[in-house]
Design goal:
This protein has 317 residues and is mainly beta. It has three helices and 22 strands. The radius of gyration is 19 Å and the shape is globular. 42% of the residues are buried. The N terminus is likely disordered.
């Protein structure tokens, strides 16, 4: 149904944006734009306000993204950003030890890997998504997201780099519908696997979505709306114990939390006012947020000032 006048059009943004979450060709489509005071958000209850630190340091220089490991509940998969090569690390959150170093071979490049995401498909296969989405100066016309089945049966001694050849790989080569963007935050919709991207350097960070499967000839990241956030560096969405499926987007100084049910599409959820998760702001350059399977969460910083980071683990009360 088309609006018949300007007054009706102004009343439609929330409805139209919600429609766009599941309908591949909604009409009309109006991107959302939400306002709230990020300095005065309520604190999300249920989590300790002081983290447990790993009893050792993480020997990585440019940690930029992480997700939990399905078969090692005390560990997270970690990537480093541009210049580090196509390597995937498994890190023990208790002691910071790098348990595995996987060299991804055949067709993998790391121009500027900035975030990891995860999705479990209808067959039960869990996928890891690699966001080659960094673009500090917004000059690259195309960016990429890679996906592979979560590695299993690997050596966890951590002493040597292992070559890893995925059995299958997906690759989204995409453009943004409104021009190049720098992004460091990415998560997948647990219901259908669509990939959500959050820009970093726009004064109001922008939300985009890619289809659940890459298209021949490339894809366009559809602009969904913008939020009063700035310099966001990571995101994650996961179904937690108890059945909720919240979204978290982090910046260097805050962790924004949107509660949600698993069936709710992200662009509907993000139109609500979030709360904040506890955060002590004691990281040198916090780049990572990741849920663990038990509903707790971890943060990790890049190396700064010559000091390697520790894992910050926030427990549930």
């Amino acid at each position: 149904m088309r609006p018949t006048n300007l007054v009706l059009w102004t009343l439609l943004p929330a409805v139209a944006a919600a429609q766009s979450c599941r309908d591949s060709s909604p009409e009309p489509f109006v991107p959302f734009s939400i306002n709230y005071d990020v300095t005065n958000l309520a604190l999300q209850p249920g989590f300790d306000t002081i983290p447990q630190l790993s009893n050792g340091f993480v020997a990585l220089d440019e940690a930029s993204g992480a997700v939990y490991c399905e078969w090692a509940p005390h560990a997270v998969w970690v990537i480093e950003d541009g210049g580090a090569g196509p390597l995937l690390y498994l890190v023990d959150v208790r002691n910071g030890r790098v348990m595995s170093r996987l060299q991804l071979v055949t067709g993998w490049t790391n121009e500027d890997w900035e975030d990891l995401a995860h999705w479990t498909d209808a067959s039960g296969q869990r996928w890891l998504y690699f966001g080659d989405i960094g673009d500090n100066d917004a000059v690259h016309p195309t960016r990429r997201v890679y996906a592979l089945p979560e590695p299993v049966g690997i050596d966890t001694a951590g002493s040597a780099i292992q070559n890893h050849e995925p059995s299958v790989m997906k690759e989204w080569t995409y453009i943004y519908e409104d021009g190049p963007r720098d992004a460091e935050s990415m998560f997948a919709d647990p219901l259908d696997g669509r990939v959500y991207l959050v820009s970093k350097r726009d004064v109001r960070n922008r939300i985009y979505v890619l289809p659940s499967e890459p298209s021949l000839g490339g894809d366009t990241a559809q602009y969904l709306g913008d939020l009063p956030l700035f310099m966001t560096t990571a995101a994650d969405r996961q179904q937690l114990p108890g059945g909720r499926s919240p979204i978290v987007i982090r910046s260097y100084g805050r962790l924004y939390f949107w509660d949600a049910a698993p069936h709710e599409a992200a662009c509907d959820v993000l139109q609500r006012v979030p709360t904040q998760l506890p955060y002590t702001d004691q990281e040198a350059q916090g780049e990572i947020f990741a849920w663990l399977k038990d509903g707790t969460y971890v943060l990790l910083s890049e190396k700064a000032g010559g000091v390697s980071p520790q894992v910050h683990h926030y427990m549930r009360k």
